Amino acid sequence: MMLALHHAWAQLSWARPWALALLPLAAGLGWLVSRRGLPEAQPGSMLHLHPDLFGLLREQAPRAPVALPAWLTAGAFACWVLALAQPEVPGPWLRPPAMGRDIVVLLDTTLSMTLDDLRWNGRPAERLAVATQVFAGFVRGSPGDRFGIIAYGARAATLLPPTFDRRLVVRMLARARAGLLGDGGCLGDAMSLALREVQRDGASRPGGAALKPLLVVVSDDGWSQGGHVSPAQATALARSLGVRVFTLQVGGRAAEGRPYKVPAFEALQPDMRDIARLTGGEYFHATDPGAQQRAIQAVAAAAPTLRARPSRREEHALYAWPLGCGALLLALAQLAAAPRRPRPRA
């Protein structure tokens, strides 16, 4: 018991230590109250003789009980000074909030994403609908992460800039429709637009420099038919910025990791497997909802959130104890100062 008290006393701290300078006033208050309670002799007062004078002289003169109430009042004031100083003991360490990820999902909205060769809740469902439902479930369970949505077809557009509002992200995912931006994928334009979004908003995010954003491409083939930026150029830009690209193929044949050539660009273009490999990401071929969920979880595991070391501790305030003790001492002082009724003589 004594060891525990000694340990608690060693950890005791004061939120307002300057209030302890008021403690000497408690002694002064006790002295002042005791002096005011003493009867003062008035010079020139008339002396009245009592018929039983000799009997009174034999009895001990009663003393006014002023010392005890005075020092009880002083003790109450001292307790309130201690309460004002706010004593507290440290509690457990406060864990700082996790520094989440910046995740931008690139949704392929070409007409091939309308194929209903997948199943959702036992019914045939379109590729895009299943992919958005799976990703929405990941968004709901990812507090602290910031999400953005970019759709691409014949052109690329930002459906939602990076935001912490997860409910808004889920609503925007539900509004994504195949054919929204025409047919003919422009994956390079979508990747460059996503890189611009995360680089522009990364400086305003606390701790953004410590976490690299990542892109998640959701498509059924990943082939780019046109656009202003080729997938090869966008991949080189992501690699130079240190942004990893994870590719999730939700239909068709699995990518083989072989470059392909299209009339819109002169050089060979990387497929979805090559884009992930060149940027340090990972490629997934997931043609059913369960495989897509496992792929999203693998993306989350590959890019874990960061958590800073705790630097602050929870403080347990103890001011209620001296505050209550002060009220109790003041009540005792009032009780001690109350006049006592004389005992009737027999």
Give your account of this protein's structure.
By secondary structure, the chain is of the alpha/beta class. The protein folds into 2 domains: 68-87 and 317-339; 102-302, 3-Layer(aba) Sandwich (Rossmann fold), CATH 3.40.50.410. 40% of the residues lie in helices and 17% in strands. The protein has 11 helices and 11 strands. The strands form 3 sheets. The chain has a 6-stranded mixed sheet, sandwiched between helices. Helix 4 (67-84) packs antiparallel against helix 11 (320-337) and helix 7 (187-202) packs parallel to helix 8 (231-241). The longest helix has 18 residues, at 67-84. The model is unreliable at 206-210 (pLDDT under 50).
What count of structural domains?
2
Computed CA radius of gyration, to the nearest angstrom: 40 Å
Report the sheet-strand fraction. 15-25%
Order of helices and strands: HEHHHEEEEHEEHHEHEHEHEH
Oligomer: single chain
Helix content estimate: 40-55%
State the helix count.
11
**How is the largest sheet built, in terms of strand order?**
7-6-3-8-9-10
Q: Describe the biggest sheet?
A: 6 strands, mixed
CATH topology of the largest domain: Rossmann fold
Tell me the span between the first and last alpha carbons: 53 Å
Tell the overall outline: rod-shaped
Which spans of ≥5 residues are poorly predicted at pLDDT below 50?
206-210
Determine the structural class based on helices, strands and strand pairing: alpha/beta
Number of strands: 11
> What is the CATH class of the largest domain?
Alpha Beta
